[in-house]
Design brief:
alpha+beta, elongated, disordered N terminus, Beta Polymerase, domain 2
Length: 429
């Protein structure tokens, strides 16, 4: 069989057989025409194809070429991935039948609907999550994106049922499905790729970054229910009001730091509340978040003030043990800055009256998305390790009397700030 003369240029071999990329292109042409007929607003979500497009976005050579070729959509892989808002899928019940009539073999992967899960009910209702269409040995993967209450898009993990054919597709090569994922809603652009009308994210590089960081952890509803049966939630007016204020504060923090493009995660008691009981700990009376010091921006304080919050205290410095605390809705937002040190990370604490320093050491972790109080937030992916480091083996038992200087399992005394530097390092407002 003849070889490609250059990337993206595909020829007929001497016997006139269409080369493999041309077969894949014909599959895509047939599939996209079908989607267009059923008005399914698929968009290209394939990482390899989008990476090529982002490098070569303005060179649409196919328009000028007589023979269509597959320089972007095929990308040297037997799979092409598309995404589709699930709300649109439900409007096109005839699509699957039509695809099968066109020769496509179908594998549908379903899973539980997390939007119906709550502390009150653990619904077993299943929804379609992934569709794989196979024709002539090539796979078109359609990922369904569901809108969640936090205003973001979510897709489920791809888990094959025991009855499914494990050889249907090269599953390890799939872009989507190893984990559940969370995305902002992308703005889409209708363009021509390899001679075919295709929607793509307007900001391709942003979408590709989001794909790399998309892993989503569902709240542990089953365990949370068990916890709340042992330790019922406080239903007093004060507790209900705190939860309302905490939600407002968390959303404000997410919006403010999002505008600065600063990633944060829920930390300390706020992280424990999410992991243990899918909510906030009402007697904690504050909201705790973490930020890596490498993501620090001097504009943070001004941004939170502009959002209507007041700076309550600032301890430490960028090089060591920085900590900011803001007040909003009569609830404190504590921002702890984390420092990487070999295979551990740590954040600092300062006692204002004595200048004593403390250090809280955690094993290294990566960040995942989650939802708390209907706000999309990050959490340490290795959540149990993180919680255990902070709260020890008894983390699942509520403790109402907590001393931040001695109660945490991972606290270490870390010296004293020099008295001559207190004015700059210990600021209380």
């Amino acid at each position: 069989m003849a070889q490609s003369l250059e990337p993206g240029l595909h020829l007929l071999d001497p016997a006139g057989h269409v080369m493999s990329s041309q077969v894949q292109w014909q599959n895509l042409k047939k599939f996209l025409a079908l989607a267009q007929f059923f008005r399914l607003p698929l968009f290209l979500a394939d990482s390899a194809a989008l990476a090529l497009l982002s490098q070569d976005a303005l060179r649409q050579r196919d328009r000028a070429m007589h023979e269509p070729h597959c320089s972007f959509l095929c990308a040297g892989r037997p799979i092409t991935s598309f995404a589709l808002p699930a709300s649109q899928w439900q409007l096109s019940p005839g699509f699957l039948l039509a695809a099968e009539q066109k020769g496509f073999q179908l594998l549908e992967v379903r899973g539980r609907d997390p939007r119906l899960a709550s502390l009150d009910t653990l619904s077993g209702e299943e929804i379609p999550l992934h569709f794989l269409f196979r024709l002539h040995g090539y796979i078109i993967h359609v990922v369904l994106l569901y809108e969640r209450s936090g205003g973001y898009l979510w897709h489920g993990a791809l888990r094959l049922k025991a009855t499914a054919d494990p050889t249907f597709a090269p599953f390890r090569l799939l872009d989507y499905g190893r984990h559940a994922g969370a995305y902002d809603r992308p703005e889409l652009l209708l363009t021509v790729v390899d001679g075919l009308d295709v929607r793509v994210p307007r900001n391709i590089s942003r979408f590709l970054v989001q794909r790399q960081e998309a892993r989503f952890l569902e709240c542990r509803y089953h365990d949370a229910r068990s916890f709340l049966q042992l330790y019922p939630d406080d239903s007093s007016a004060a507790a209900v009001e705190f939860r309302r204020k905490a939600k407002v504060l968390l959303r404000l923090a997410a919006q403010t730091l999002g505008r600065l493009d600063i990633p944060f995660w829920i930390s300390s008691g706020t992280c424990l509340g999410w992991y243990r009981q899918c909510g906030v700990i009402s007697y904690s009376r504050d909201v705790d978040i973490g930020i890596f010091i490498s993501d620090f921006r001097p504009q943070i304080t001004t941004a939170f003030r502009d959002a209507g919050m007041s700076l309550k205290h600032q301890f430490g410095k960028v090089e060591d043990s920085l900590e900011l605390s803001f007040l909003g809705e009569d609830v404190k937002l504590d921002i702890f800055f984390f420092y990487r040190d070999g295979d551990v990370v740590w954040n600092g604490g300062t006692q204002a009256k004595s200048g004593r320093k403390f250090k809280y050491v955690f094993p290294s972790f990566s960040l995942c998305w989650a939802e708390l109080l209907e706000v999309k937030v990050r959490v340490p992916c290795e959540t149990l390790d993180y919680v255990m480091a902070n709260y020890g083996g008894t983390w699942s038992v509520p403790v109402k009397s907590w001393d931040w200087k001695s109660s945490p399992s991972n606290v270490i005394e870390n010296g004293v700030w020099p008295v001559a530097e207190w004015a700059g390092l210990i600021q209380v407002y």
